[in-house]
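Supplementary Methods, section 5.1.

A reviewer requested that the exact input to the structure prediction be made available. We therefore reproduce it here, unchanged from the version used in the analyses.
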Amino acid sequence: MGDTQQLFDVGFQLSFLAVLGIYWLNQPLLTYFPKQDNYVKKIMFNTITISLSAQLATFPLVLYYFHQFSLISIIANFVIVPFSEIIIVFSFLMTALISASADFELINRLYDFVIQILLKMIHWFAEVDVLFFENIPMNGIEVISVSVVIFLLRPLILKFNFKNSMALIMAALVFLMIRSGSTAFENRKEEILVHTFGKNKIFSIKTGNRVCFWIQNTENKTTILRYIVHPYCAARRIDHFEIKSLPPSVQKVVFRDKIYELK
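The structure derived from this sequence is encoded token-by-token as follows.
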């Protein structure tokens, strides 16, 4: 029997959308490239279009879950994917040699060398901050509207005409309207929360597009910023935030006649 809980797994959702994006956009994108009359061109062009298709399809969900996106990942795929194929070939070759009880020390060294290069490239790309955007708000309705825009890319790529262009433009305008409305709605809300981070409790008061956080343990301020403050500000579309300290002895906060437990 299948595990229906997998439907709610982020990894499954992203993998499904990546495959769907490749199916939906890869072949149309390939039509804009020169004829693939040799193996090198086929690998190179398919690497570009497959990477771009997968990135476009997963783009809305990546923003929804992680509130960040790196354009450098598209460039990284152009380099990493070919290396991955080399590793796969080496893996099959080594498996065959093992089954034949052959000596493959030289191939093993080459395999390790390629792996090390690949890991270094991955680490290098991961540390590049250029073209990295974070704290991007995205809600469920916006995800759907952006997905419609991406869906409409296929007919436009296959046949660039007025009808397909207008359909894409209208979908983009609908997304912008939804986004503006969502931002306006969030900026009118007031919210009081107690965030739990390990053994720490963080008290926050949101008014409009501003929020103030009160923390007791300032030693974890950097970590709290990364995992509590920034994600919250992205989700609530906060423009300004400030952090204030509370004495460690404080166990409760009373605000507007309501008690908030901090211990």
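Strands lie at 68-70, 132-134, 190-197, 200-207, 210-215, 240-245, 252-255, 258-261. These observations are discussed further in the main text.
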